[in-house]
Amino acid sequence: MANTILVGSQWGDEGKGKIIDVLTGKVDIVVRSQGGNNAGHTIVDGDKKYVLHLIPSGILRKGKLCVIGNGVVIDPVGLVSEIKGLAARGIKVNAKNLLISDCAHLVMPWHRELDGLREALKGKNKIGTTKRGIGPAYGDKVARTGLRICDLANPAVFREKFALRLKENNALIRALGGKPLNGKKILAGYLAAAKVLTPLVTNTVTLLHKAMQAKKEILFEGAQGTFLDIDHGTYPYVTSSNTTSGGACTGSGVAPNRIDRVVGVVKAYTTRVGEGPFPTEEDEIGDMLHAMGREFGATTGRARRCGWYDAVAARYATIINGVDDLAITNLDGLDGLDEIKVCTGYRLDGKGPVLDTPPTDAGQLARCRPLYTSFPGWKTPTDKIRKYKDLPPKARRYAETLAKLTGARLSIVSTGPGRDQTIHL
Ligand code: GDP
Ligand code: IMO
Ligand code: MG
Question: What is the pTM of this model?
Fold first, then answer.
């Protein structure tokens, strides 16, 4: 399948985990290159459901190597509990199937504390983060005050660095009205996690380079989505990493000219968790999907905000990521509707020229009114359909129109969470 980057082309939760799991069958290595345990990637294998946060979704397939790259921020205690959770379900994780970059940064408990305190201080302007400490951890990385996985390998060095960081962060926590953290307990937990993780730590850049020389194929598993990207998203209502395809290169040390293909994943509608502008948001769709038991966050359990497919945003995502192939998931979510709308343009405050690019200013995007094209619903269950030609003609027309408006080749249509509920074109 060559080296492929898979990205979310919306606001996250597009069904990346499911599509990664399907595509893993064709590659040798699956790499996570950004984000942290703010991600929640769901894979359904028969009657078993797995939600992965830090470990690449490839871990569920035998004989595949998973890599957590340098661009990921790792909560070591969280990672160990994820490893143990998989072991309890019969999936052994060891250096044969999971390797961790020695330069990945650590998420520390003070990052989580500061994440929560800053959100509380923002009041109604909060971002609605997952409170996993992601923003403060990337903040420390960029400020050059972060601790890294390689620091964990040497307890004496780690203790020293830890003490210094604890002092500064407890001062910050106090200043923001929080309760200082107890270093002793935290240190013990991190050193215990280090014992489990250190055997998995290596220079993953040279490892991936050698693997490519040996003609191994790599799939890069994006986390979050394009509009949560720190540079290209609806700032400040974003996460703190580059969720777009470029992030896969910097976050893994694999050069751009080694990438062969970019797959963009979209839902057949749009969802968003947390605050921030969402032009096509429509409570009715949310109510319908929530009543079906769908669209609750895989990490925080929050009800996702829902709306119509936003082709303006998705087309912009195609440009930023260089999307070649489009995977449309959750088509079955629209099976019962009489009419389906797609946003093909915006008007600022509902007036003036039609915008075909989302304004980069979140305030302006919040003022954009969507212009819709309507499609007749197919009113037929699609979850048992396995061949493209067997989809109702109206569903095919809808999927093809989405791909055309989004500017990418329609490659996969998913009509259920299961592995087999996947139509390849
Ligand atoms: P990710 O973060 O992009 O991996 O997506 P999540 O796992 O957070 O959310 C996607 C949700 O949609 C999960 O519950 C998946 O099991 C589910 N899912 C993925 N594709 C389909 C589909 O085609 N149909 C249905 N019904 N569910 C799907
Ligand atoms: P996956 O990989 C959906 C959102 C949060 C919040 C914003 C910032 O499962 O698609 P953060 O904790 O990162 O500082 O929160 O980003 N967010 C996600 N939304 N899917 C995700 O990951 C997300 N990861 C973060 O809800 O709005
Ligand atoms: Mg998710």
Answer: 0.97
